[in-house]
Amino acid sequence: MTDALLKPFYQIVTAPPRQWHPVLVHFPIVFLVVEAALLSLWRVTGKPGHEPLAYACLHASLWTMLIVAITGVHDAGLDLGAGNLLWLGLQDRWQQAFRWHSSITVHSWLALSLVAITAARLLWRKFVGPNALRGRQGWAYGLMTLIGLSILTAAGYVGGMISHK
Amino acid sequence: MKIRLLLTLVCPFLIALPSPTEAALSPAESDEFNGQEAPAFSVTPVKGDAVSLKDFKGHPVLLNFFASWCPPCREEISNLSQLYKQHSKEGVAVVGIAVDSLVTPETVGEVKPLAERLSIPFPVAIAEEKIAKDYHFKGFPTTVVIDRDGKIAKTFYGYHDGKVFEAAVQKLLRPAESKAQ
Asked: Where would you tag: which of A74, B20, B84, B113 has the fewest CB atoms within 10 A of its CB?
């Protein structure tokens, strides 16, 4: 039992996965959910400590999201013959970009929308500061956060179907 | 007002969840058709001469249904190519059937370039409705294992690792070896 529990900790080094996207994708998800939870806590309790933490989580979420997007392109190029995996993956994604019958296409567009919304929120917070969370702006910011979470749910649902293989 | 606005913005994403996209089947092994005579087929590969089931009489055959744009199918093709290279001398045959013609006719033209780019060593043909119907095709990827006697030995739905196919092939190769001894 101990071995089974410890295996995931060392296996990532001794037997690295072929596809990194399914492994790393959990990081931005967790950061995004924790950020939303901290924002809600800040709204309810008004404790000033929650707000900068939420901002830090937003930063972490966006940057890990970009890494995860690159691994997604890399994984898409894995079984496309010889060549640069990122380039092959990009070519494949471009070719499939508007083929809505493919769940990976739907997943990619949802993920891109999420990156765009997260980047927009980060820029908003960066340039407006904590005022982005107050008054009418606060409501709009909260709405964008909720939309981001609903896209995250949809992207995760479709992505989960893909990794079902 | 705010609630209405919120619902308007959030609902489209929730409605989009059950969108009719084609995902790879969930992995499952089926014994439902085991022992049934494998239906005869004759297909014209995108490269090379026509092949039919009777050409492989006395040899195990793996019939792989895939879609050219499906990444798990491509990964499976890579596993099957490796298996084919290892066991073709022992008579193991693999035939790829691209179901693009049935599910996404607009991508049929991409099957041949894909076969060339991946240097698929076994014959790859475009599916016709008859073969899909005969082999109870319900989604991709699907691999039907046919034994030396021309009977269905196993049906794999969804993506499967090379080791799974290796084990299935070993099982089919074993009886003949023991008979020879």
From this structure: B20
Alpha-carbon Rg for chain B, nearest whole angstrom, is 19
For residue A114, what is the nearest residue in chain B, using CA coordinates?
B13
Predicted TM-score of the model (pTM): 0.82
Residue of B1, B4, B13 to mutate for A, most A C-beta atoms under 10 A: B13
pLDDT in tens, B55-71: 999 999 999 999 999 98
The complex scores an ipTM of: 0.74
- Where helices occur in chain B by DSSP H, the ranges are 2-16, 71-87, 100-103, 111-117, 129-134, 162-180
Q: Are B60 and B146 in contact (CB under 8 A)?
A: yes
* Tokens representing residue B130 in the block: 């008859």
At a CB cut-off of 8 Å and minimum separation 6, what does B84 contact? B92, B93, B94, B121, B122
Burial class (CB in 10 A: 0-12, 13-18, 19+), B152: buried
